[in-house]
From TrEMBL:
Keywords: Cell outer membrane, Membrane, Signal
The species this protein was found in: Pelomonas margarita
Name recorded for this polypeptide: MipA/OmpV family protein
Subcellular location(s) of the protein: Cell outer membrane
PANTHER family in UniProt: MLTA-INTERACTING PROTEIN-RELATED
Coiled coil location: none
Length: 271
């Protein structure tokens, strides 16, 4: 069994999907977009479910991993908890009847990293740890799509890195029960982040594994989430995602793939 660290690509995006399901669920139920329970803005809402996730990471010697995950979420007017993170909702800026900008303070556990025992190719590498990241997020909501920008930094000081994410998502409602949400995104990582997780120190050099210093780069992601409402409380969902890695990551001697991919499917009950 691999360590929890190398499951980061599986765990973090998969569990984050719990929180992202809040707005589509509320919209599908006819309620406000992500502001509370079914039909009433500000009402607290709980979600509980289970999911299966299968993903392929880019590190050498790491095979595709599939596992089952519990899913838990909570949301009220000022707070959202889902997966590995939480958000504090700040006052919303209303632009018009159809446009607004939401501001959030965010905190999340980043499960990136590995141990030498996770792969024979990683033998002799020092452990790379995850940590707690914090920052801020803004989302422009309008009739066309939702555009989000998020900046976070490693406050646990393992990598001392920073990340900036941009994502664009559109919800298409196909009848009263089915919703499709395609998305596209880009994630910038500074050189400290890339060097910590994909660099090779001089004392870690071995035959076939040269020294490497990471530089900043941008990952690109495409994804599609489908949500089917069985009734106002029961839902099943499928989330597909593929990430094209930055050149600075693909060039790392620790990496053997240019992309990572993930399939997530599950069931969620919203109280």
């Amino acid at each position: 069994m691999r360590t929890l660290y190398l499951s980061s690509f599986l765990l973090a995006p998969a569990l984050a999907s719990v929180a992202l399901l809040g707005a589509p669920l509320a919209q599908a139920q006819g309620g406000p977009g992500g502001m509370g329970g079914p039909g009433r803005e500000g009402q607290s809402s709980w979600g509980l479910g289970i999911a299966a996730v299968s993903g392929q990471e880019a590190y050498k010697g790491i095979e595709r991993e599939t596992r089952a995950l519990p899913m838990l979420s909570y949301e009220n007017r000022w707070f959202r908890l889902g997966g590995l993170g939480a958000e504090v909702k700040l006052p919303r800026l209303g632009i018009s009847d159809t446009q607004s900008i939401d501001f959030r303070l965010v905190g999340k556990f980043n499960m990136d990293g590995y141990e030498a025992k996770d792969s024979t190719f990683l033998a002799g590498m020092n452990e790379r740890k995850g940590g707690f990241w914090a920052g801020a997020k803004a989302t422009w909501r309008n009739d066309v799509a939702h555009l989000s920008a998020e900046w976070t930094a490693d406050v646990s000081s393992h990598s001392k890195g920073q990340r900036f994410n941009l994502s664009l998502e559109k919800n298409f409602r196909l009848g009263p029960q089915l919703m499709l949400s395609p998305r596209v995104g880009a994630s910038w990582m500074d050189k400290k982040y890339v060097d910590y997780y994909f660099g090779v120190r001089s004392h870690e050099v071995q035959a076939g594994r040269a020294a490497s210093t990471g530089t900043s780069g941008v990952n690109a992601e495409l994804g599609l989430r489908s949500l089917y409402m069985i009734d106002p409380h029961h839902a099943v969902f499928l989330d597909l995602g593929v990430t094209r890695l930055a050149k600075s990551i693909k060039n790392s001697p620790l990496v053997e793939r240019s992309t990572e991919n993930r399939v997530l499917m599950g069931y969620l009950y919203r109280f």
